[in-house]
Amino acid sequence: MLDVVITIAEFKNRLKARGYADSTVLWYGSSLDMFKRWLDDKGIRDIRQVNHQMIIDYQESLIARLLSTETRATHIRAVKRLFEGLAESHKLLINPTEGIIETCRRNRKIGTVLTLEEVKKLLNQPNLSKPTHIRDRAIMETFYSTAIRLNELISLEVYDVDLREKVVFIRKGKGNKQRVVPMGKNAAGFIREYVEKVRPRHARKNPRERRLFLTDSGRPLTKINVEQFIRKHRIDAGIKKPASPHALRRTCATHLLQQGADIRYVQELLGHRDLRTTQQYTKVMPLDVKKAHDNAHPNNRRNNAD
Q: 101 FRET partner, CA 20 to 30 A, in 44, 182, 199, 231?
């Protein structure tokens, strides 16, 4: 017997062991707890009793609850990952979620993407006469230059940034994966200024701390710290759109694609396992880029000549 409660608990522990973000583990856990309650109502205690039709019935029960498309998709995604893991570990011969569609990816919209002008306004907002603002500028430049995640940024340690080679070593990426990402000269320049002029001052109260980005009291920055100062700079810059760390990640990826970067390179930069996830960024293409493509593509020119 594969007890439902024990199986779900083991799955949550596996996510933690693989280095998934706390928020991801929490969300997957709550989704699977909801699925467990549904199975309880059906009198199912053994996960091996779940079949394909039951998954369809569960999906329909979510629809009946009038949840948003994305929320339903996330709940189903958690269930799919659970059964995929059981099938891969040979605890199940058949995956009952095979063929179940979370949501139509073609219709999914990605979140906020800033224009180049908005990025310039945001990056220029910190007052560089203030030490903490030099740190803020270094962080925002890093987000926009490298497209790293918020969790990855606050986990960076001093020696994870090579300013000479202009690369960042991500040692605690999503899914516990490591990668090396390049950064531009602006980001490298502001990080250097922060490391040489600001961090030593901040680290006086906590000299053994190895995290790269610190508060003025010498403690590692938290996600809330970063989100709050970016929000403040966004408001002060008069930008109406949300400008979260993840928005800067999306913006970096989108701007690279708009300038002709190969999508496989962008996939590697973002640390995406699935190219389809990266392909979502191709939806955000301004009209002038599309027009340039129409005018420049050889096939389009040939058709015009005909």
A: 44
What is the structure's pLDDT at 180? 85
CA distance 150 to 143: 8
225 and 198 inside one domain: yes
The answer to whether 146 and 182 have CB atoms below 8 angstroms apart is yes
- Mark whether 149 is an active-site residue: yes
**Catalytic site includes residue 249:** yes
CATH number of the domain residue 95 falls in: 1.10.150.130
Is 105 known to be catalytic? no
Active site residue 281: yes
Tell whether 279 and 139 lie within a shared domain.
yes
Q: Are residues 121 and 201 in the same domain?
A: yes
What's the pLDDT at 178? 80
For residue range 237-259, list pLDDT tens digits in order: 999 888 889 889 888 888 887 88
> Active-site residue among 72, 171, 241, 246?
246
| pLDDT given for residue 296 in this prediction | 46
Q: What is d(CA 213, CA 305) in angstroms, rounded to the nearest whole number?
A: 57
Catalytic residue, chosen from 135, 174, 202, 255, is: 174
179 and 120 together in one domain: yes
Do 129 and 278 lie in one domain? The reply is yes
Asked whether residue 121 falls in the same domain as residue 78, the answer is no
- pLDDT at residue 189 is higher than 90: yes
Which residue shows structure tokens 């180049």?
116
From 75, 135, 149, 199, active-site residue: 149
Q: Model's pTM, two decimal places?
A: 0.61
Q: Could you tell me if residue 212 is inside a domain?
A: yes
